[in-house]
Specification:
Order of helices and strands: EHEHEHEE
CATH superfamily: STAS domain
Helix content: 25-40%
CATH topology: Transcription Regulator spoIIAA
Number of strands: 5
CATH class: Alpha Beta
Number of domains: 1
Radius of gyration: 22 Å
Structural class: alpha/beta
Shape: globular
Strand order of the largest sheet: 4-3-2-1-5
């Protein structure tokens, strides 16, 4: 009694093939406008930004109003990016101009961060789903 090749048991038959899963789009988008010198209050800024990170969130940092991004702010951005990855959030740097953009390029942080130009719009972004983005401004220091 001989068996046909199709009736021979093989471990691969009958198991569904798994496709690599694309990253899930962020369900909620929060846009935070950063203004002025980002080196002046790193602790307050760190606490405010880390509090906004949560799973399935796209945190967009609008850097159009930022005038200075130095080494301390770059370290803050790196720590924020690491925490975003660990928590399942996505971090986007939007509209950096002038000195902040030069710092990001010199430090080659465009390899680490998703940097978007002014023409990109988080409200119409195809890589997210859910409600319209929430705009927030960090609390200003009195004094």
């Amino acid at each position: 009694m001989t068996r046909s090749p199709s009736s021979l048991p093989t471990p691969l038959l009958g198991r569904p093939r798994r496709r690599p899963q694309a990253p899930q789009p962020a369900l909620r988008t929060t846009v935070v406008r950063l203004q002025g010198d980002l080196e002046t209050r790193p602790r307050e800024l760190r606490a405010e930004l880390f509090a906004l990170l949560s799973p399935d969130t796209m945190l967009v940092l609008d850097l159009r109003g930022a005038t200075f991004l130095g080494a301390g702010a770059a370290r803050l951005m790196l720590a924020l990016g690491s925490q975003a990855t660990a928590s399942g959030a996505r971090l986007v740097l939007w509209r950096p101009e002038g000195q902040p953009l030069r710092t990001l390029r010199i430090a080659r942080l465009e390899r680490v961060f998703d940097i978007r130009p002014a023409t990109w719009n988080p409200a119409r972004s195809r890589d997210r789903a859910g409600p319209a983005p929430q705009r927030q401004e960090p609390a200003r220091r009195a004094g």
